[in-house]
Amino acid sequence: MKTLFLLLLSCLLAVNFSAAATIPPHPRLLVTDTDWKNLRNKMTSDPIVKNIVSTTISRADSTIDAPLLERTLTGRRLLSVSRDAIQYILDLSAAYKITGNRKYLTRARAELLNICSFSDWNPEHHLDTAEMQTAVAIGYDWLYHDISAEDRKVIVAALLEKGLKTTIEHKSVLSRGNNWNQVCNGGVTFSSIALMELHPETSKTALELVRKGIPIALKEGYTPEGSYAEGGGYWSYGTEFSILTHEACRTAHLPDPGIKSYPGFLQSGDFLVQVYGTSSELFNYGDNKESPLGPIPAAVWMARETQNAHLLEMISPKFLIPSPKSLSRFHILAAFWYPAKNTTQIKKYPTHFISAGISPIAIHRSGFQSSDLFLGIKAGKAKVNHGHMDAGSFVIDWQGERWASDFGAQSYHSLEKLGFVLFDMKQDGDRWKAFRLNNFSHNTLTRNGKLHDIDGTATILSSTPHPQHKTVVDLSETLDLPKNATATRTFQMNTMTNPPSITITDEISNLKPTETITWHMLTSAKTTKSGDHQFLLSQNKKSATLILESARASSTVTPVTPPQAHDDVPIGYTSIHMTAQPDDSGKIQIKATFSPK
Question: Could you give the strand order of the β-sheet that contains 526-529, starting from the edge strand earlier in sequence?
C-alpha cells in the first residue's frame, strides 16, 4: 500500500510541485495578510489564542535588549544560534504585525541583517543552515513591506548564496531517511518560496529536489498506525517541519506536497497521545528526554486537521500556563492553527497501543488519568537513528509518578568534545561507551556483562489488549544467544485487581553453566531492600513494591553513579539488579512483580 502511494505521489509531484500557477504577494509563508487580520478576532473570542499571542509578545519584549546573535559554534554545531534566530525573528515580527510598535520591527530588522552578515550558516552541519534559512525566509516574507529595498537586497543575497544554493550543493541531506530530511527540505522550501519570483530557476531546482526527498522521510519515519521512528520527542521536531512545509506550499499556492495525506502522518497525533504516560512524562526511548508534554504547535495543527478533541484537550492547558523555557520557537503559529470552537470531536483512545516499524513499541495502561497504571515497552534494535541499546526495556507510571525510568541521551557536545564519534553505529564504536546509551543503563537484560548486539532485533511476538494486557518480546538476537538458545520477555498488566499490577517474566534457555543474565531497573524512587529479593519503593508519599524471583540469583540495590569520567548521570536515581545463573538444564527464569500499595 505504501509503495503504491509513493508511486502515485511521485508522479503527481513530478508534474506539479515545482511551479505555482500564480505567485501570491508577500506575506505568503505560513501566514497571509488575511490570516493576520483574522487573528484579532480569534484573540477576542478564544482565551487560549489570546494567551499564545500575549506570551509571544512578552518573549519578544525580553529579546529587545538582548545582544545580537553571534556566529559561535558549540562543537561542530551552530544549531542553538539558528534556533534562537527563529525564535527572535518570529516573535519580533509577530509582535510588530500585531501591535504596530516599531521597536519590534527595528530589532527584527537588525537581527535579520546581522544573521545575513555571517560568513556562512555552517553548511557542514546542515540542520544549522536549514533552520537559519527558515528564520531569514520567514522574516523577509513577513516584513517584506516594512523594510527597505536595500535591506531586502541584502537578505535576498544571503538567502540565495548561504541558503538555497548551499543546500543544493549539499543535496544529499534532502534524501536522508530521518528528521534531517524533514528539516532541510523545510528550510530550502521556505527559501524557494521567498525568492520564487526573483530567482525562479534556482527555486525550481530546489523544489524539484524537495519533491524527490519528501517521500523518503515519510516512508522511513511513519508507520500506518502513526508511530514516529525516532520517538515522541523527535516527533515534535520532524513532524513540525513537515507541517511547516505543507503549510508553506498551501499559502504560496503550490500544489499539495503529499505530506498530510501520507499514510500514518495524521495518525501520528494518536501516537503522541499514547507515548505520554500517566505521570505526564514522555515514554522516552532512544535519544528522547524524559520530559512532560509542553505547548507544541504541531499538536495543535494535528488536532485541527483530525478534529481530535482529545488531543486538543490534552495540549490546550499547556498554552495557558506555559513556562518560558517550554515555548517552541514556532509558538506564534499555534495562534493561527488553533481550531475554532465546536470543530473537534471527542475521540476515545484504546488502553493498548502497538506499533511496528524500525523501533517497535507496545503500550498498556489501565486508563488515561494520573492515577492509572502505564507500561511502555520497547523492542527493535540499537542500530537505528538515535537508537540506544534499549531493546526489551520498559517504563512504568502510576499515581502520577514514574517508577521505572529511562535516562535518555547525554548531551552530544559533552561527548563529542572529548573526541567521541557518536553516530558511527559500529559494535565497538564510541556511541556504546556512553553509559546512557548502552544496555547497562536500561531496564532490560544483559548477558555475561556484555553489550547488546547492535544488529540483533528484539521482535514483538504478540501483544494483546484488555483483559489480557500481555506483550511477549523475543530477545534472543539482542542478547546474541547461540542458535539453539532462546530468550523471551513477557509483560503482563493485571487490571482486574485493585490496585492493578505488572509482572515481567524472563525465560532464557540453553545457556552454558558459566553464563549469567543480569536483570536491571532504574528508578527515581527511594528504594530499600526489604527481603531477599524484595524492594520497597517510595516517592512523594506514594509507595510500591518490586519482588524479584529466580532460583539461582543474587540481587542488589545501589545508587547510580557515573561508571566513567565522561558519563553524565542524573542525580538521585537507584539501580536494582538481579544476577542469575542457569539451572542444571541451562534455563533461567526471572519474574518481577511491580505492585502499587
Answer: 459-464, 470-474, 486-494, 501-509, 588-596, 542-549, 534-539, 526-529
